[in-house]
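re: that chain from earlier
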Amino acid sequence: RYFATDKLTLMSILGYSYDGDMVGNYSYIDGENIVHTYSNVADYQRVWITFNPTYTPFDWLELNADILYGYRKFNDGGVMNSYNEFSAQFRLSADLWKGARFSYSANLQDPDFAVSYNPQVKRQHLMFMDSFGITQNFGSKVNVSLGVSNPWKKYFNDKREIESPQLHTITMTRSLARTVWVRVSYDFGKFKDFVKSARRGARNSDRDR
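^ sequence. v structure.
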């Protein structure tokens, strides 16, 4: 982390991971059917770098971003595959009048990419998502939030693609994108009790044998 100025902070992380026997998604053709299952990937490597700037031009306004670029490489029983990955997120939060706060976030990413380790995937299909929200506190107990997600589009068109020497499939999924939400919370009080610690520590008798 580097404090460039009293208002700008820069942070970057370089990472590497290796898994010699990872379980990943796998698809193959069985007669006239396509079977989707799981398989032990013989070798999986990933290297990535993140860049995270945070800028606070005023006491009531904060902007920050998360940018990731990476490279994944698979060796699935001698079948090699590798591809690049990218994602970006931008967030803004601002204090309005007393007890009120506005927030906005925008994301450019593949919704299934971060959690799906498929050695047959060769490319990302990025999707843009964003949301607005206003939160109002009424005293110390009542909190009301109102927001909208993806106001600029009604539907998502999600594209998933897998490719191997045996098959090449493209799946298109259409889902509702625009949503409006309202949340009301009430704090009934603080938990005043506590868990008492044992006066005598536990002893493992197996170690004494």
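The mean pLDDT is 78.
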